[in-house]
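Why run this: before we spend reagent on co-expression, it is cheaper to look at a predicted model of the complex and decide which construct boundaries make sense. The entries below are exactly what would go into the expression plan.
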Amino acid sequence: MANTLIALDAMGGDFGPSVIVPAALQALAAHADLSLVLVGDEQQIQAELTAVHATLSPRLQLHATTQVVSMDESPAAALRGKKDSSMRVAIDLVKQGAAQAAVSAGNTGALMATARFVLKTLPGIDRPAIIAALPTRVPGKCIRMLDLGANVDSTAVHLHQFAIMGSLVSHALDKITKPRVALLNIGHEDIKGNEQVKLAAKYLEAQTALHYVGFIEADTMLLGDVDVVVCDGFVGNVALKALEGSARLVLHALRTGFMRSLWTKLSALLVKSTLNRVRHDLDPGRYNGACFVGLQGIVVKSHGGADAPSFSRAIEAARLLVTQDLTAQISQQPVVVSTELI
Amino acid sequence: MANTLIALDAMGGDFGPSVIVPAALQALAAHADLSLVLVGDEQQIQAELTAVHATLSPRLQLHATTQVVSMDESPAAALRGKKDSSMRVAIDLVKQGAAQAAVSAGNTGALMATARFVLKTLPGIDRPAIIAALPTRVPGKCIRMLDLGANVDSTAVHLHQFAIMGSLVSHALDKITKPRVALLNIGHEDIKGNEQVKLAAKYLEAQTALHYVGFIEADTMLLGDVDVVVCDGFVGNVALKALEGSARLVLHALRTGFMRSLWTKLSALLVKSTLNRVRHDLDPGRYNGACFVGLQGIVVKSHGGADAPSFSRAIEAARLLVTQDLTAQISQQPVVVSTELI
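The model came back. Tokens follow.
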């Protein structure tokens, strides 16, 4: 079994080494073929290792850095002023071939800007995209949606490239042989949508290598009848935040409802396990790990607020993308759209 | 008190006269200054009136038509082939000045196409928009969002016009003196977003008559800190459907959770009133009535599946827009953007 070496930005996210060190140990215990490099402040990482009675080993190395990119730092400032940050160095290790992927829970904008600057896009790919999983009505079934905010004003050619990359990610992470790919639109009819979406539909219909199933809307995609949903990054980011905000609104209303009186508080205790199960089933941390695709290297972004089990799932996603050799797979796709159709 | 006369498309929606006739009676009972015209199939409307022991009167008239636009009919087919449909005639009555507004629960695409074709846009307004209310975390507080799908590829000038119209609707329907208007974006920073949104922000910052408060994201808008959210129709339609789909997903997961065992079914009975209250608070029917703004006449679209109380709220929204003279208010706004900024 080939060894997979992943660099972890140990300082990223809301909790830094206190979450990322235990997550690293969990991931190592689960996968004998995995090695990790903790990139970050030596003292803090050593202190966390000591706290959990662990030590460095050939499978768990440390790469000391002196800077940290903060959660609210501008991408430009991070890129210019933080060349020895844990985030930058983790990506540099991928560039140098010293690691096969980087995982970070840091600032998304800075991570994307750094990944793009250091790694560059793959030949034939104009723009990298962010792809993540969303829960659906079907228990255990997620859909993968891209782009979630790396790009605005995506052209039909970009949407076409996203579709190909999304299909490969769905295959690699969800083990789906021929993922059903849909284009996000505001109706099902051919006349609906903007010019980019209509033109992208033509490209995708012409591409027999993909299992393109047509348009889908933002509510019906949650039924789980498709595997990959493709959209512009502005639209995808709005949709993702609307989904999260709406779920939080409903859960907040429930919590408020249960706090109304002593009777409702008592009744809430009786349904606590059901409510916890629902929260767990819909928890974005279950599918933690947004992948940056289209770059010459694999970068996975964890939620900033991820706990150790959740962060270890982001490591697991990176491991799968490495073992499936996603980067090579994307490079081998005929992603350049024939100009006849344009 | 001036009389308000509203034409109702009695055949529209999933239930037609069986919902719209009782809704009309409810609205008439609530507002002494209101008169209604039921537009549709004479026999069916008379049968419904008989069923609820009501009769036509000077305040409740009937305008017989012979055609119905179906829920899945294409806008072009409706426009071309259904000139004596209840939908078309209700809008014709507004055009002729025989009614001051039209309310329909029919096919949104056909309704917008017909309204646009018959009524035309107001001077200074390039495109009509669809505006509707969304619930927020603050009990009883809604936000008004536009455009929800009348337009795709809105320019900064369109977004600027939507902002002005949205502010007037919020003032008319929610009685807010100086509504806080925000632009939907994928971040708060000035560098975020597409070119249209960035340019629209400049226009809105320059317009002192509006209370423009900056960018907002699709999750934080649900906190209820703003009154009007402005976006392109493609983005708004996706956001609306994502919000609805996500809320349904959570409620479905709850229902499934409570059906798991006899114990969970029994516990569900104890919390039923709380769950019903949450469903009621978040029910889109509470704020039923999406308004088409920017046209030379008022048209309100009810949810297709609305019940009678919900449809009567759509009538109420139309009545408020008539009494506040929204159309004249929009015409009087200096909506044409100074070319200096372009």
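Chain A touches chain B through 58 residues (CB under 8 Å). DSSP finds twelve helices and eleven strands in chain A. Bring this page to Monday's planning discussion.
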